[in-house]
Amino acid sequence: MAPAPLSPSSDITLHVNGEKYPLSVDHRTTLLDALRERLDLTGTKKGCDQGQCGACTVLLDGRRAVACLQLAVAADGREITTIEGLADQERLHPVQQAFLDADGYQCGYCTPGQICSAVAVLREHAAGWPSAATDDVRPEAGPPPLTAEEIRERMSGNLCRCGAYVSIVQAVARAAESEEAAV
Amino acid sequence: MTTSTTATATAGVTTAQGAVGTAHTRVEGRDKVTGAARYAAELPFPGLVHGWLVTSSVTRGRIRAIDSEPVLALPGVLAVLHHGNAPRLNTDYVGMLGAPDPTAAVLQDDRVPHAAWPVALVVAETPEQAREAAETLAVTYDEEPHDVDFTADRPAAYPAEGQMPAVTEKGDLTAELAACAVVLDAEYTTPEEQHAMMEPHAATARWEDGRLDVVDSNQGATWIQGELANLFSLDPSAVRVRSEHVGGGFGSKGIRAHQVAAAMAASVLDRPVRVVLTRRQMFSLTGHRSPTVQRIRLGADTDGRLRALDHHSVNRTSAVYEFVEPATLPSRVMYDAHAHRTAHEVVRLDVPSPTWMRAPGEAPGSFALESALDELAEKLGLDPVELRLRNEPDHGPVSGLPFSGRNLDACFREGARRFGWDRRDPRPGVRREGRWLLGTGTAAASFPSGAGPSTAAVTAEPDGTFTVRIAAADIGTGARTALTLVAADALRVAPDRVRVRIGDSAFGPAMIAGGSTGTRSWAWAVTAAAGELRERLALGAGALPPEGITVRSDTTEAIAALEARERYSFGAQFAEVAVDPGTGEVRVRRMLGIFAAGRIVNPLTARGQFIGGMTWGLSMALHEETVRDRITGGHYGADLAGYHIAAHADVPHIEADWVDDPYPDDPVGIKGIGEIGIVGAAAAIANAVWHATGRRHRRLPIRPDRVLAAGGPDA
Amino acid sequence: MREFGYQRATDVPGAVALLDADPAARFLGGGTNLVDLMKTGVERPARLVDVRELPLDGIEPTPEGGLRIGATATNSDLAAHPAVRRRYPVLAQAVLAGASGQLRNMATVGGNLLQRTRCGYFTDPTRPCNKRDPGSGCPAIEGEHHNHAILGASEHCVAVHPSDMGVALTALDAVVTYETADGPGALPLGDLYLPVGDTPHRETALPPGALITGVTLPPAPAAARSRYRKVRERASYAFAIGSVAAALDVRDGTVREVRLALGAVASHPWRARAAERALTGAPADATAFAAAADTELAAATPLPGNAYKVTLLRNLVVAVLTELAVEAAR
After folding, report:
1. Spans in chain B with pLDDT lower than 70
2. Which ipTM score applies to this complex?
3. What is residue C207's DSSP assignment?
4. B675 an active-site residue?
5. What distances in angstroms separate CA C232 from CA A34, B585, B618, B625, one per listed residue?
6. pTM here?
7. Residues of A whose CB is below 8 A from C36
8. pLDDT of amino acid B3
9. A79 has pLDDT over 60
10. Given an 8 Å threshold on Cβ–Cβ distance, is A70 in contact with C35?
């Protein structure tokens, strides 16, 4: 029996930066395109649209994810934080402030993704997650110190073609010293 | 109230006091870290529709038919443009930077000269509809055989000038080589490389009040305005191009298929049309660095003095456009010899057109030349730094002109001191640390300091602030911030009273962000206008009129009046690497670059420019290579998982610094710093790999498989 | 990407029934591979059944002393799990060596095993590929193949499987469990992937419409001393050009048990059984490790552009086993 044709679109609600956005979406629409084209939240960048650059990194239910490979319809009801949702009014998030102070960017296009990713890196590290740079992953070994090498490995999903990696790593390390950054 | 001033060349560096020379965070920094900065595809337009380019599935041939009807019946599809119905373009012109690459003049005929050539533009109400329509558009072809096989010995290679002589020569090369105690003869190859800036090429075009209004991502609003005016046979005043934030350019963001296609569709549909290239399309439609094969012959006396230098380079270009990758440029300025010869040749094949890419010529050329110097030092038993210092020329080796400052020796001495070069054991392949072999290497860097005519307007506002307007582009260089500091000093006010507006062709003609000339060119114009304005205000203007007082400048005459000189920045690169001979992995452990690059306007952002360039050199040395597939003629793995640029984990702590380098030929003392960081960096790494393993890598990138193939002390 | 229907499954029988009713449907997990392939036109499903919210994300000890990993557990949760890190460090390391932090947060265990090859001919619909378009040919054999297979390939396809996790799971004798409309089933991971032969488009032995529900790891005391090493063309965020998952139990200088699997060498994670047999009972030294690696790689049939992989894998096997042996001797 041939299956009944299904609707190619759905009514969903995107929860972005604490706001609820009811939306009818074409199922083909990615979360990235929904943010940029439908909600005018263009801070989340489209670098490759293939999960290969990290420019579209957002926080999905508190964890970093690439919005380009996340279908909007499948993000219905999930908590989404974008670069526009990190600052507390006029007060920048410590990671944002650290990028600004350390000149952790040049053209700025990968920057929102780098910052969202860095916010998550600090959380993941605080939760004791190991990385590929961690010598001993056994829990008995304890959480690895957040060295430059650990930061580089954990941030490697965010490409920066301007070559601002050195100052980005400095910015993340500086932000890590801030107590509120990992909250 | 508006007046004009003509800038004059000034001798002497402006005083060090003031904003220039002190670190300032970017004036647009807050917008960039909060996501508020809007790039080309991010400005909303009522009634916006989306164009999607369709590219050829064959590598070479002719379009037989395009079946638009089924696609036009799909939901939301508004138009299918192709060579049979697209507006005609004028390509018979010479623009600001030369004749156009026909790749940008899309949809004009049925020829397919290379893989992934644009054959149609589909326009639809939403991006999803446009993508599906583009994917399903049926295009049939009469396919023809392709030839993409690039080698140096192709008989069809011919000398080509580009923007400089194809050949320079003096002395009797054969005789000098025969008379030399030590001769090096080696071939070096560099691959096709991609700009791969993070922001894809994007443009939104619309007609408004009889004018073509284009919001675009480019390296020069004036440049793109001129190209579009020429292509569409419009008066330049009927075209406005805006480009406020640009997500990287590196030479690729000029006139491209996306602006032209968007303007065509806007004309046909009379709606705002946005065209954004996909990452995959960028690999074939936005230029690349041509591969090169370079042969270098060096002859020296036993004391290391060069007597013969021969640098021959062949690069590949497309069938539709001649582009010369001027890889012998470093040899034309770095080292002199009694017999000195350089030559550029090109081979035309069925590939996409190459273009300028960060340090065109200098980047691949310095890999070859500075590797060759290292090999010569090895043969001579001479320290590589000392060999370079012994060959510092007094005058341009080719031009015979004096240098407007060189200071390469200061860079090497300071760099060697800080890097710890004097503790280096010259023997290769003898340092181990666990599974790693360690080595260090060095190389010299050079890059021209140029300037292009620009205009600027500076306004004294009634509220005591100042507004600078100039069609500059900040592609990540920090130009907007640098110009703020330069203007503040010229006006003798604090930077927070100056607002710099850029990226709008309506501000008048200005140089592009390219060739490391942007900030120098624009700062010159801004200094001239601001200085004149300050003098006028000092005369006591009284209360300002509501529109303020504006002074305009034009540097055309001042730049033309510059005396002929060799104007260059120089630098010394150092690198330490670790090589696992069992797996072929190479890790760069540290890099240091010391530069003589004129006056540094903003140390914070300047350091980023140098380190960014050095990071490119690392990426070029170890990672970057476009695989041009002989079988299909296409690009194998045309995405950012297939084309590797360095990631965070590849890049160690890199330091960059500079020596004093007065530059009296520029009113601010600026030389330009966007490109020199990459020059020599790949050679320093390759030389370090030799020092670690005892094996020379004359082919980039130094991939694990190539390290394994080369063998080594442990393999 | 053509229009498609979307349904979010809330229980396993429901998910399986939805796919059973529509051969043009696909399960959607994290989407990190499928959505990309849909954008490039390699995959054109008519319906997606979203299984991410199925209650299959647990990671629990089994009564036998092994571990049961749910199919929708994310890579991140797997790599961060204390029991995985303690008892199967090779698995945590393999997962952490793959992709990026963002992708590991999205990707699921089931999806990881079923991801498609990253061969550049497969991912470019304008080019021939027997896996994507059976009978169209394999340009890789004459063309670009420097990261293609050296073991188990055929003249129809030389693509490699991109998974890191799968290499570790293969070394650990993982068993894949699945559900179909006709009931549950299980396959050892070693039997999940079909030989390439002349049907490279048929990749797994799963029945049509099967939903992977989880992976079971048997107890493996030897895995307490285990390691994953991956070589790639940049230091992170790249697919392997060669990798090794190894576990080693050494007593008195003699190999009691060894588990060895190789990545980026074949159309599936490659269990190095010949090397394991050669090593069991042999002295735990570099000579024996090299001989065992040579035994395994004797079957290699490299192409001109990927012969280096034989050297690379041999050296990797020796290096990783030597490191484990040195640790054991401490």
Report:
1. 1-17, 541, 712-715
2. 0.98
3. P
4. yes
5. 34, 8, 16, 14
6. 0.97
7. 50-51, 69
8. 58
9. yes
10. yes
